Structure formats: structure tokens, C-alpha cells
Amino acid sequence: MSQYLNYAIQLAQMVEGQTGLNPPVGAVVVNRGRIVGIGAHLKKGDKHAEVQALDMAKDNAKGGTIYISLEPCTHFGSTPPCVNKIIEAGINRVVYAVKDTTLPSNGDSILQEAGIDVEFRHQPDAENLYKDFFITKRQSVPMVTVKVSCSLDGKQATDTGESKWITNKLVKKDVFKLRHHHDAVLTGSGTLNADNPQYTTRIEEGKNPIKVILAQNGNIDFNLDIFKNTNTPIWIYTQNEALVTDIEHVEIIQLTNCSVENIMKNLYEKGIGRLLVEAGPTVTSEFLQSNYTNKLIIYYAPKIIGGSGKYQFFHTDKIIDLSEVPQFEIVDSQMLEQNLKLELRKK
Amino acid sequence: MSQYLNYAIQLAQMVEGQTGLNPPVGAVVVNRGRIVGIGAHLKKGDKHAEVQALDMAKDNAKGGTIYISLEPCTHFGSTPPCVNKIIEAGINRVVYAVKDTTLPSNGDSILQEAGIDVEFRHQPDAENLYKDFFITKRQSVPMVTVKVSCSLDGKQATDTGESKWITNKLVKKDVFKLRHHHDAVLTGSGTLNADNPQYTTRIEEGKNPIKVILAQNGNIDFNLDIFKNTNTPIWIYTQNEALVTDIEHVEIIQLTNCSVENIMKNLYEKGIGRLLVEAGPTVTSEFLQSNYTNKLIIYYAPKIIGGSGKYQFFHTDKIIDLSEVPQFEIVDSQMLEQNLKLELRKK
Question: Which terminus in chain B has less CB density within 10 A, N or C?
């Protein structure tokens, strides 16, 4: 493991969640044993990480090595191809950690023809950074993280709807971080009307995600707290053609069918690369049953609450054959004081 | 702990060992919850970290916050004051992790008079990065790390001088990293003549430190391997006026008294901010007895070798009273397979 390649991956992790439909990427330019430039892709449409790092390095790039978390691009997108910039800068060697399987992979040969050594050095850390990105980009849908807070017996609330007991302070902080690293947060109108939540990011200079409300029937109370914060756009998906509002930061999107698939495609078109689902049992279960969930994060409170299970986080109308239930693998577990956080990836 | 301040500290750590007499510094500019610029001080004389980050951010800096691992400077050194640049960029808030106690600390008030919020947010991680820097800068001497490889009974070699058994591969790699993060490595002519070492950094694109040889009496064999590598300058300190060479990358520095103190002051004048001492018992013991050792790193091999202790790493002519022996505190311990690494700081 090269320390410089490791630095490039660290830089990518710093900008995770702020690059929209683009992947987070970091780059480090090294010459004669010294770092001469560092860069990260800060925003879709902005300079790529390689360009930032080469711009910082200027003439010191000549004869140097560039370490990149992801294979450099060869296409004209919002910016010119990075391989051109690398060749023009006089770089001698390119080392990258992950191949971009969503792009025509002719970068190696373009660089090699220009006399540049190219090394693809596989890094598991970096692969985890891009795995879901590759999958969802091909489908033109956002990466989806479903977040659930529940009791040890899998319920988001008691039968009467009480749920305030579920999360401690550390979990709340962790959820703020989650929101910061996503472009948008989605919930259902049911949860909205019942809990009156705000979905803000109360960490220092946290990025507030766009709020997406799924309101199939158009049952929305515009006096709820969520509509009072005018800093972040709110998008409402509905099949109800009569639903209108004159609130400036609220956009109503009419779909003939508010299926998870249709909403996903529409969100991606609107620039959402990373979506966090924070909803009640109905919407949560819809996403968990769909093919559009990449990650599941469960916060368990140390309680068993019983009852009929009206608010169990996963319930389905049909009985699913055990061979067909959604399969996940646990990638991380963490104690947050008395709450347990489990991080799972869809298999 | 702010994540952005943490990122600034990570950036500083990436350039540790390449800034000579200057401290390693990292900076991150944030605006409306997004990183808009990142920077690090890459080399003494180059732009400071704040300037790199603000240059990357351009107009996006306006109204933003800059997070810096170290208090921004207010003086004209090799570059103009960073506080001016911060004010010109239209930054709203400055958050830094460590106060620079070696500079007149009027930065806060200059920034505040310009209407900028300033917050000093103490970070233990960052403090460890600068503690020794502050001490040595005031004395105009390099930060000194003494490295020792020895048996469990404190010997660098058997009485016959055998020492090849001492370190395993992981230790060798770790020592290469140590060298990379120092400006120069110092040894004595005795070790050089006995072991014929090269003091190179065999990690990918590692920076080879300048080699400093202490040869009080001028007893140097210029046919040794160390003189064959012409990539890195070699400086020889001696009291012997007759010692000369025409090897191009070798500089002979005559001092009337080759005391540790005189060599330290001279090295600092020549731009050495971080010195690694890798020597035999005599030079090692001299440094450990002096006031110029900041860090001691010991690699223990799982052997007890006995003998008379001719090569014990710390031996002194005088018996030192127990109340006056050099005091250290262990800051880290790590197993490198069967070798134990201890990291200590002078108290």
C-alpha cells in the first residue's frame, strides 16, 4: 500500500457526498519524494481532482507521478479529459486505485502511447468507495441508503405510534453526518404528518440535503415545520394532479405512477447521486423490497417493545419465500453508547 | 471535533517532513456545507496552506470558513501574511487547532477588526504535530529523533560487533518511513567504517534525507558505499582541518568544536528542521545526554545477548545520579511481528 495512494483515497473520502452524480476523487502529485500538488473533485461541473492537483503543482509536475483514487477519464464531459491534462503536464507515471468500469477504459493506452507508465494498483478501501457508484450509474439511479431506527424486535414505534425513545444523542449525531454525506433525504407523507420531522443536519457547517417527500395521494399539510425552513428545496412526488402550492422552495412533481423505480430515475435526472431514505414502515419496506437499496443502516435501541407490530420496519403484503428475501451482508457494527449501529450492503 | 478541522490536520500530516524549517500545515475552505478548497504547505518558501486552499476556492471563499491546523501567520516571511489573504478572500470565519507560540500572536485581533469570527479550537492531535517544532524553533535547532535498534538487554551489537540479527523486515520498512519524514539523518564515522551502511529510503518515491556524518577526528574512508550514491548531499562535520575531498556531493564542515550543540545550530542554519540520529553507542549516548533529543524510538529484537555490553546503546563516562538521568514518557508501543517498537518523548 503506497502512502501517496492512501492520501489520494483520504482526499476522496473528504468530498464524499458533495459531488452529485460524479464520484468523489482525490489526487496527489509527487516529484522526487515530495508532494507537489493535492486535489479533490469538489463539485460536478468543477475541475476534476487530477486537474486541481496538477494546477497546484504547476512546473513541479514535470517528471513526477500522479496518484489517483480512480482511473483518470478520457472523455469530454463537463470538463476536458484528464488524460490530456496529465500528458500536457509532463507527468511520468500514473498510479490509480480503481478502474472506472462505467467509462470506455482506453485511458491506459492513451497514456502509455504518450510514454507514461501506468499502474492500476487495486485498493480494497477505494473499491468500497466506488462499488455502489458503478452499479447505480449504469442504471441511471441514485445510490440508496435506507436508514432505520428500531427496537431490538424490529419496530420503529409502539402500536400507538410512540417513537421518541428510540435514539440516543450519539445516534442523532451519526444521522446528521449521514444526511451531510447524501444529496437528498426521502420520506413518506405519513411519517411527515405523524412526526412533523425537519430532516436537518445539525453538525457544524453540515450540508442540508434536499428533502424529498413521497405523497402518492397528495395528502400534505403545508403548515408542518419542514416547510418553514426555506434554505433547502423540497420536492414532492405525487399522483394527485390537484396538489398545488405557492411556497417558493417547494416543487411538486406529478408522476402517473409513483413507483420506486420512476422516482429513482427522476431523482437521478435531477442530479441526485446519493439518496438517504428515512421513512416509516411503508416507504422503508417498499425500498427494501425494491432493487434500489444499496445500503441499509440500522440503529438498534436496547428495548423490546412487543405489541402487534404495526410499525415493524419491514412488513410485506405477500409472504416472501425464504430463498427470495432480500440478502444483505454486515460490513460494520458499532456501539454508540447503548445503541447498536449495523451497516449492511445489499448482496 | 469538527470533521473539517480534522481534514486540515490530515493534510498537515501528509506533508510532515517536507517543509524544512517550517511547520507542516493543512487548510480546508468550506462554504454552505461544501468543501470549496484544500491546501497544504508543500515546501519552505512556497505558498502557505491557507493560500493554496483559498486559491483553489477562488470566489467560493467569499462568506466561507477556513479551517487550519495552525494559527495563520501575520508576518512577511518568504511569503506575505496569511491573515491579509484571508481578509482579501472575504472569509467570514477562521477556525484553527493550535496557537503558534513562536510568532507574535496578534492574528486574532487583526482578523476580528476586519469583521471575521475567529475560533481557536484546541486539538490534541494537532498539538502533538507542533509541540517539538515550537521548542526547537525557539532554540534555532532541528527537532531530533534518536533511533535505536537493540536487544532486550539494551545492546546494539554483541561484543564482537555483530548486529545483523537485530531487525526484521517490518522494522526496516518502518525505518525507511522515518527517514522519509526527516530532512537529514546523522551518524558517526565509527558506525560508517564498521557497518558500511547507506541510509537510503527504499519505499516508493521516498525522500532520501541528507546524510550527515560526525567525524571529529576526520577518520573517513571515501571508498565506502555511502559515497557512491550521488543523489543526496553528504555533509561531514570534523575538527580535522586536513580532511578534504573532491567528491562533488560531499561537503566538509570544519568546526573548532564538534559538540552536539554546535552541530545542531549549524544544521538549523543550513535548513535542517528535522534530524534523525541513527548511530552507534557513542554518538547515540552523546545525543541522549544532550538537551537536543525530542524523541527516542527503540526497536527491540526478542533476544538477550549478554557479553560485557561494549555496544549497549546508552553508556556514559560519568555515573549519573538517578534523579538526573534523562526522563522520557512512552507515547506509543507497537508490535512489528516479533520486534517491539517503542516511541518516547523527552519530558
Answer: C
d(CA A212, CA A235): 5
Shared domain for A186 and A292, answered yes or no, is: yes
CA-based nearest distance B299→chain A, Å = 22
User: pLDDT tens across B214-267, in order?
Assistant: 999 998 999 999 999 888 999 999 999 999 999 999 999 999 999 999 999 999
Q: Which three cell numbers stand for residue A347?
A: 448482496
Q: pLDDT tens digits, residue range A79-116?
A: 788 999 999 999 999 999 999 988 877 889 999 999 99
Of B14, B34, B40, the CB nearest to A43: B34
Host domain of residue A44: 3-134
Q: How far is A31 from chain B (nearest CA, A)?
A: 8
**Residues A9-43: tens digit of each pLDDT:** 999 999 998 999 999 999 999 999 899 999 999 99
Give contacts of B32 with chain A, Cβ < 8 Å.
207
% of chain A surpassing 90 pLDDT: 66
For the annotated binding site of B, the residues are: 48, 73, 82, 163, 165, 179, 191, 195, 202, 278
- In this prediction the pTM is 0.84
Query: Based on the domain organization, do B87 and B195 belong to the same domain?
Result: no
Is A34 within 8 Å of B18 when comparing Cβ atoms? yes
Instruction: Show which of residues 149-208 on chain B sit within 8 Å of chain A, judged by CB atoms.
Output: 177, 180, 201, 203-208
Task: Collect all residues with Cβ–Cβ distance below 8 Å to A95 and sequence separation of at least 6.
Answer: A2, A4, A5, A65, A66, A67, A68, A119, A121
- Using a pLDDT cut of 70, give the percent of chain B over it: 100
Which tens digit of pLDDT belongs to each residue from A122-173?
A: 988 888 889 999 999 999 999 999 999 999 888 998 888 888 777 889 999 9
Catalytic residue among B16, B50, B127, B241: B50
Q: What CA–CA distance (Å, rounded) separates B237 from B184?
A: 13
Buried b (16+ CB within 10 A) or exposed e, A64-85: bbbbbbbbbbbeeeebebbbbb
Residue B2 has pLDDT above 90, yes or no: no
Write A165-168 long-range contacts (CB < 8 A, 24+): A165/A301, A165/A303, A166/A299, A166/A301, A167/A299, A167/A301, A167/A339, A168/A301, A168/A336, A168/A337, A168/A338, A168/A339
Which of A18, A35, A55 lies closest to B14 in CB terms? A35
pLDDT at B304: 87
Number of domains in chain A: 2
pLDDT-based confidence at residue B204 (cuts at 50, 70, 90): confident
User: Which CATH number fits the domain that encloses residue B94?
Assistant: 3.40.140.10
Domain co-membership, A111 together with A145: no
